[in-house]
Task: structure prediction
Amino acid sequence: MTRRLSTRTRLLALAPPLALVLASCAPGGTDSSGDPVEDDDGGTAGEATASVQELTREDVEGGSLNYLYFTDGPDQASTEELISAFEEEYGVTVNLEIVPFSDLETTLQTRLSGGQAPDVARITATAPFEGDLLDLTPYVGADYPETFIEGLRAPMQQGDQLVAVPSDLTMNGPFVNVEQFQEAGVDLPDPEDPWTWEEMMEAAASVQEAVGTEFAFALDKSGHRLSTVLSQNGTYLVDAETGVLDPDLATEALQALTSMIEDGSSPRDFWLDSGTRYAGANEVFLAQQVPVYLSGNWQVAQFEANAPFEWAAAPNPCMTECGGFPGGKFMAGFADTDEPELTALFLWWMNDTEQQRQFVDASNFLPTRADLVEDGVEYASRSEDMNVFLEDIPRTPEAAYASAYSPEFGAAATEFVEFYAQVVAGQLELPEAMEDLSSTLGD
Result:
């Protein structure tokens, strides 16, 4: 059943998109901040070099698009504002249809099979729609991916076709209870000089002992969050180079966390409950029962609204690698659209510099554009904390982006949680579990 939110927004269902946190929740590279280079014509590589940048109101006036969308919350209002501006500038109509994240793929596949695909959709991955997406290359130019951070360029493409535009990014990373650190007399991490994992664990344990919190460190029950730890030791559930998880590196990466769970200084019970389903440790942090909590930038708005204490984002700790683990969303057009030029224009316009700056500011997301990552974003709320996450984008290995956006990642992350829960339950030793996980993923 539908009801009208406005003259252009139709709400198809109201269930909350909690599953987005898993994908990101759901869902940059090692060198995303290089200066643009000039092309042979003196233009800037990465800008739209084909027709959309030159389109005027007269070229598209009267056109109409359907945009299938799922929302994380604050992004909806910003999206509606941007759509209104686009409609006014070009004299077109964009019908925004909102579905729960949990229904997104089913809705799209049903409409595709019935020949009723939307013109545009917000998606977390392109693989489920291979062969159905509009090739944007003729409209935005072959160099357009260079507009975005390096790690997102491959996920934008299927074969030699450019089929999606990365609209926003998330990054896993830790939060600290500033008041507890100050009470314990423990130094906070320097955003320009991240902790090592050993330093983070020592700091967390010192605060726990001094303040008397129940735990020292917590992270969400999530294969995506656990993948942050793997990445920091140079291995991945889906590894583009080796093709398989390195069980020795995985064991080494997870040993500190496992030891903390075993001795009670990190939460244990939720690893044993609810199967492989996601469970967050945010309530433990909000209850001031843990001084260090590894989650991601999507928590910033919640903590700003609900935390009764001073807190801050901290840079990700380092092992052999630094940085976090990414997630994010894409905008894509469908090949069956009757308005391919308008579709491409809409995707390009919504992700141009000023529009993306407005969107990520209002939504507490991170930008995908290389220029915004390089220059930073002045957020209206908790800008210093958001820029801690932003500064981890170029620290994050390119292999982390390849793993996170792989079509195999979701299933691999579920297996990861299942095997790690057996370690927590005492059913498997960590080395054995990582060997078994690597073998399972390699089959």
In short: Residues 172-326+399-442 form a domain with the D-Maltodextrin-Binding Protein; domain 2 fold (CATH 3.40.190.10). The first helix runs from residue 19 to 23. Confidence is low (pLDDT under 50) at residues 1-49.
